[in-house]
Amino acid sequence: MKFLGYILRNARRNPVRSLLTIGSIAVCGFLAMVLLSLFSTNTEVRSTLVPFNRVITMSAQGFTQPVPIALVREIPAIDDRSGIHAIVHRESDDKPLVSPFSWYGGKFRGESATFFAQFGVDPDTLFDIYPELTIAPDQLQAFKERPDGTVIGRKLAEDKKLSVGDSFELKGEIYPFDMNLTVVGIFDGPEKRDLRTCYFNWNFLNEGLKRDFQGQGANNSGTVLMRCKSDELVTKLCAAVDEDTKSSDRATKTQTEDAFVSQFSEMIKDLQTYINMVGLAVAFSLLVICGVAMAMSMRERTSEVAVLRAIGFQKGQILFMVLTEAVLIAGIGGFIGTFGTMLLFKFWDISPYTMGFFPFFYIPTTVAVTGFLVSLLVGLLSGLIPAFRASSLPVIDGLRKVV
Amino acid sequence: MDREAAIVLRHVTKSYRRDQIQIPVLSDLSLSVEEGEFLALMGPSGSGKTTLLNLIAGLDRPTGGEILVQDNDLARMSDGQITKWRSNHVGFIFQTYNLIPVLRAQENVELPLLLTSLSRKERRERARTALRVVGLEGREDHFPRQLSGGQEQRVAIARAIVTDPYLLVADEPTGDLDRVSAEEILLLLEQLNHEFEKTIVMVTHDPQAAKRATRLLHLDKGKLVADVAQGRDVRTAVQPENAS
Amino acid sequence: MAFVPLKYNFRNLSVRWPTTLLTVMVSAIVVACSCVLFGLVDGLMYSQAVSGDPLTLLVMRKGADNETSSNFSIQTAQDLATLKGIAQGRARTAEEAQKGFPDLQDKPLISGELLNIPVMSRSDGSRVNLTIRGATSASPYLRPKFEIVEGRYFNPGTRECIVSRSLVSRFPGTRLGQQFRVSDKEVYNVVGIFTAGSSAAESEVWTGREDLAANTNNDRSVSSTRIRAEDNRSLEALIDSITNESRFGLLPKRESVYYQSQNTTALFLTVIGTVIAVLLTIGALFAAANTMFAAVKSRTREIGTMRALGFSRTAILMSFLLESVVITAVGGALGALVSLLFSNWSFGISDFSSFSERVIQLRFGVLPFAVALGMTLAMGVFGGLFPAIRAVRLDVVKALREL
User: Fold this and answer.
1) Taking CB atoms and an 8 Å limit, are C119 and A277 in contact across chains?
2) If contacts are CB pairs under 8 Å, which of residues 55-84 in chain A contact chain C?
3) Are residues A21 and C355, on separate chains, in Cβ contact within 8 Å?
4) Which domain holds residue C68?
5) Does C300 touch chain A (CB under 8 A)?
6) pLDDT of residue C402
7) Statement to judge: residues C269 and C232 lie in one domain
8) pLDDT of residue B71
9) What is the per-residue pLDDT across B133-173, written as a single tens digit (0 to 9) for each?
10) Which of A17, A347, B232, C178 has a CA-to-CA distance to A130 between 20 and 30 Å?
11) How confident is the model over A297-317, as a mean pLDDT?
């Protein structure tokens, strides 16, 4: 690495150009990180769900249609009857870990648009189904006991400055009545989980339908959530449940939590395709940008290269120096653009500004590393043509340009 | 070492092809340079003197004939071999100095040593020695733009001698300098020729500069038209000096 | 004041044509990337705009934000038909009659429709919610430019359906004569392919309301009702009478207002598009600046000469600025042209209000080209400004001495 000193000097030779090139790569790297993370975050989070073996039953007609609440009892029965025994039972009281899971979709305290998720659940089993979520035992007890109690995620509590005991009003949109809840607990969980969700008692929602809507749509749940022992059993359970309901008028679709969640990103698949195309276009543009900068650099240095060749530098050494310089510049820009962006979003939570599309947002390490490697590759490729031209220019031609 | 024939050119021709036309530059030129000679090449523009210099320095290849430098047939060497040979045996001095602007004086001088297996410390010592020889002690950390033309050319000369080559080629080394600086540079070349036994081939337009050489060649239209030995006999001035 | 003749710039451009060409290419790529996305936004906004008829009322349950979350009893829907001021249907054209359009002549233009949004697999296997609309005999007359382009209109009660042309080939079983399979119990024969003037209906499959009701066990309610008023005054009257009838619990909205309010997706895409456009512009701007700095540098002596000849600083500034704008403008124009190649693209985007698939034909109206123009000017002006300033600030005497 004797040449490194010289290469570094060369990279700094035209600071404006190097900075512009680095800036260009950093800005595009930032863009690529943000865009690619929109989807890979989802993929990465989904993979963290897999080990919990959770299963969701929804209507075969899509999640806008509810399923009967009776399924909460029937599914464990099917599980037992068919001898699959997939569903986890609580050790203390042998209760199957199954809960209704009903989207409420209301507006919080007069907001014109509310972007956090609200679900009606069974307070008794929810935190056993979600062992990765943590809550203080007394708060959990309160959640189980108080019919109008709600537990909210830590980040939601921080966003809305809520603490235990505060009232929590939701205005119905899909449901024709409002919900006046009270915060009885604040739960926490892993960084890569939606901590901007509120859970309340499904019964409270059902009572509302009976009271204010002549019982229309009552005794239904949006979906049913359960936790299973292993993934082989999951497959069998899903098939068994759907087979059982197939002939009824309320056919279901049962799938893993992972598969259920992935529906949402599949919906915007075309956008994903577009964003991947933009990613490619960005990489290609950067190749051109770096290549042009490097070519301009080398053209201004033609005579110097000729001098180096005259005093005995081999073609390969020139090639190496030019390529290293190109990779260096692209790498600096790429490093800032990728790891810088990753760091930025580590400390800056943009979720409150994303209208609920991203309850949490971060740049996955794999995305950043890939981006950085791409920037190095861009540097290498962009340097190829200028490097070959510089190293293969006949020495006397290069020297003649000076005089 | 064969002192009698350091550089031998036999029936060398060189022509360039420009578009469809062959332009002859050197035709059937034979020449023999002895070790320790200080050769000045003169002649009008286009006479082929720089081409001859480039051929001797291994920068260019002849169209015909052979060039033997220290018994190496330059025309038969590959590009890689000839490049390596240049780095070991030839030092270059250019009219426009051609220093690397982003490197300090000392780093410029060290540049050719990067191609050797010398340690960092040895490289630095050699570069300092070379700078001392050209009288630039204390200017090691200056960038080229902080030096005068004469000083820049001295750095270039230090760079040329730092690998202890036996042949120095200089293409109009005083062309860009004022009289006083030019004198200093010529004195330095003379000294290198005398004291360090460097064989020097210099292209020049300047009769004053040519006078410093021990032998003067005149070229015209690619042919040698005059070959004059002049000045002192080099061999009487030899000193037992080997390392630089 | 003497301006530097443009010819001078062009001569120079042609000298460094490779780098110039590449810079043009970069600006073309970034403009094309942004244009395509804004073409989508434009298409979406156009679709929203044509979907809303100023004389049509969309009646939904009070509190519901969109058709998907609305539902009310079929009895109430029938009561609405008794209101005064509802426009009458026109006579069928001969072609319409031949294609089996329902006869609505002298009958009220009111349509209580039912929606179902099942999860469907696209042809490539990815899943999405698709809107299936249970239509009535008035439905086609309440859509702009409703046309059957292949086959015929469906016969209600016979499990037939018609499919929007944009959906054909995106979903399996949607070609004329094929069977469109939602679930084992819900299968329709495709008897026609329709278009509806790029309106929202173009993302839907239509069948008879009674068919859909039977298949989804929902024969007691409708999702929404569309009413065409005779004129503006009767529209006002209709709004008043529906709103004031508290027994209904309904909220009428002008269709045009409703579609304006369904802007979440457009907003989301606009935000993403703006982020992409701004960042890409900055990236490309740096590249343009690099090229221009190199241009200034390589022409230092010429600049000195021109100044010595008497050209003013302003003339030099304008000359370089113009050169930069011309380079990016050529790129921008090229990029806009390239994006036109995508004008036949239809883009599937999930509607974030209803979570159902919207298929949008890209549209290159004013918006994408305004974006292209803005980006081009930003790149050209900001990319050229600093190099031009450097050119202007050159010391004449020093510049003349420069190599």
Assistant:
1) no
2) 60-65
3) no
4) 63-248
5) no
6) 64
7) no
8) 81
9) 899 988 989 999 999 999 999 999 999 999 999 899 999 99
10) A347
11) 87
Kindly state whether residues C68 and C143 are assigned to the same domain: yes
d(CA A163, CA A154): 10
> How many interface pairs between A and C have CB atoms less than 8 angstroms apart?
163
**Do A402 and B107 count as a contact with CB atoms less than 8 A apart?**
no
Q: State how far residue C54 is from chain A, nearest Cα, in angstroms.
A: 25
| Domain match, C244 and C269 both | no
Residues of A with Cβ-Cβ distance to C324 under 8 angstroms: none
Looking at the structure, tell me whether residues C42 and C80 fall in a common domain: no
Q: With a CB-CB cutoff of 8 Å, which residues 215-254 of chain A face chain C?
A: 246, 249-251, 253
**Three-state secondary structure string covering chain C:** CCCCCHHHHHHHHHHCHHHHHHHHHHHHHHHHHHHHHHHHHHHHHHHHHHHCCCCEEEEEECCCCCHHHCCEEHHHHHHHCCCCCECEECCCCHHHHHCCCCCCECCECEEEEEEECCEEECCCCCEEECEEEEECCCHHHHCCCEEEEEECCCCCCCCEEEEECCCECCECCCCCCCEEECCCCCEEEEEEEEEECCCHHHHEEEEEHHHHHHHHCCCCEECEEEEEECCHHHHHHHHHHHHHCCCCCEEEEEHHHHHHHCCHHHHHHHHHHHHHHHHHHHHHHHHHHHHHHHHHHHCHHHHHHHHHHCCCHHHHHHHHHHHHHHHHHHHHHHHHHHHHHHHHCEEEEEECCCCEEEEEECCCCHHHHHHHHHHHHHHHHHHHHHHHHHHHCCCHHHHHHCC
pLDDT-above-90 percentage for chain A: 43
Nearest by CB: B83 against A12, A309, A403 = A309
- What is the average pLDDT across B197-223? 90
Nearest CA in chain C to A64: C117
Domain presence at residue C227: yes
Question: Could you tell me the pLDDT band of residue A355, with boundaries at 50, 70 and 90?
Answer: low
> Which residue among C223, C248, C273 closes a domain?
C248
Confirm or reject contact between B100 and chain A (CB < 8 A).
Answer: yes
Considering the domain architecture, whether residues C302 and C174 belong to the same structural domain is answered as no
C256 found inside a domain: no
The answer to whether B75 contacts chain A (CB < 8 Å) is no
pLDDT classification of A42: cutoffs 50, 70, 90 = confident
Give C-chain residues touching A171 at CB under 8 angstroms.
63
A402 confidence band (pLDDT: 50, 70, 90)? very low
Number of domains in chain C: 2
Whether residue B242 is predicted with pLDDT greater than 60 in this model: the reply is no
Q: How close does chain C come to A136, measured CA to CA in Å?
A: 35
CB contact under 8 A, A396 and B60: yes
Domain match, C160 and C26 both: no
In chain B, what are the domains? 7-237 (3.40.50.300)
| Candidates C20, C72, C126, C262, partner chain A, best to mutate (most A CBs within 10 A) | C126
| pLDDT tens, per residue, chain C with 403 residues | 567 777 777 777 777 788 888 889 989 999 999 999 899 899 988 998 899 899 999 999 877 778 877 888 888 889 999 888 999 999 999 999 999 999 999 999 999 999 988 888 888 888 888 999 999 999 999 999 999 999 999 999 999 999 999 999 889 999 999 999 988 778 999 999 999 998 989 999 999 999 999 887 777 889 999 999 999 999 999 999 998 887 888 889 999 999 888 877 788 888 888 888 899 899 889 988 988 888 888 888 888 888 877 788 888 888 889 889 998 999 999 999 999 888 888 888 877 777 788 888 889 989 999 999 999 999 999 999 999 998 888 877 777 766 5
C280 lies in a domain? Answer: yes
Whether A9 sits inside 8 A of B80 (CB atoms) is no
Does A117 lie at the interface with C, CB-CB under 8 angstroms?
no
- Subunits adjacent to chain C (3 or more Cβ pairs under 8 Å): A
Q: Do C169 and C134 belong to one domain?
A: yes
Euclidean distance between CA atoms A343 and A363, whole angstroms: 8
Contact C69 A174 (CB under 8 A): yes
Closest CA of chain A from C28, distance in Å: 10
Which of C215, C248, C281 is a domain's end point? Answer: C248
C12 and C126 within one domain: no
pLDDT of res. C261: 83
Alpha-carbon distance C47 to nearest alpha carbon in chain A (angstroms): 18
Whether B90 has a pLDDT exceeding 50, the answer reads yes
Q: Does A4 touch chain B (CB under 8 A)?
A: no
Q: Is residue C254 part of a domain?
A: no
